[in-house]
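Narrative of accomplishments. A recurring question from our advisory board has been how the design workflow behaves on a single, concrete structure rather than in aggregate. To address it, we present the structure tokens for one chain from the evaluation set, followed by the sequence designed for it. No filtering or post-editing was applied between the two.
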């Protein structure tokens, strides 16, 4: 059985949490496609050319905790504007989406570019302030020097770069189900996603 769930949305809207929960609930495999761009971004911080990094990316590169920092997130959104970087990563994502047993992919362009024929498309969003607050709580527990202002500025800068780029900008697919998590608990957001998937099965 092939069944593809595409989950897109801006940073810290709850995509990751929802994707993991949905994958566990339905027994689907999960790919966080942001990790691909983070892994390429991290290699550029080490001095590698972005296109070379994307063309030689190994799935093992994705299993690296150092990909979770804001420096790597910013580097990821910079390499993500390069069309050759994006095209080098398409085949891996599409073959993941076609695996038997079902797949959930989360990112920015899954419903629009990578899997335009996905069985279910969700666009998970929340206000910038709300997303920055969540990211602040997550980052400040690891680094006490993190400030709310800096996190909000980073979120806004990344949103702008992701939405305004020419290739595969962040935007909902025409047929995406919108889930605004600003005033939802995690459980409510997961239920909204599961309901949309059940309706399509
Ligand atoms: O989702 P995450 O915050 O890990 O993504 C890091 C960056 O990778 C995003 O800001 C975005 O620029 C890029 N990205 C993308 N397309 C995807 C997933 C992530 O351009 N499908």
């Amino acid at each position: 059985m092939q069944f593809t769930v595409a989950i897109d949305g801006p940073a810290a809207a709850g995509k990751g949490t929802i994707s993991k929960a949905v994958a566990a609930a339905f027994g689907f495999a999960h790919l966080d496609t942001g990790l691909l761009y983070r892994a390429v971004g991290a290699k550029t911080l080490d001095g590698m050319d972005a296109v070379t990094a994307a063309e030689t990316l190994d799935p093992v590169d994705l299993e690296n905790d150092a990909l979770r920092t804001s420096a790597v997130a910013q580097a990821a959104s910079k390499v993500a504007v390069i069309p050759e970087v994006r095209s080098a990563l398409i085949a891996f994502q599409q073959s993941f989406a076609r695996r038997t047993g079902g797949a959930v992919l989360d990112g920015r362009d899954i419903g629009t570019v990578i899997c335009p024929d996905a069985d279910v498309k969700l666009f998970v969003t929340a206000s910038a302030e709300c997303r920055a607050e969540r990211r602040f709580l997550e980052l400040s527990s690891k680094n006490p020097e993190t400030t709310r202002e800096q996190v909000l500025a980073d979120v806004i800068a990344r949103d702008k770069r992701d939405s305004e780029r020419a290739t595969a900008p962040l935007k909902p697919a025409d047929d995406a189900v919108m889930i605004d998590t600003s005033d939802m608990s995690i459980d409510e957001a997961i239920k909204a996603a599961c309901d949309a998937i059940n309706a399509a099965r």
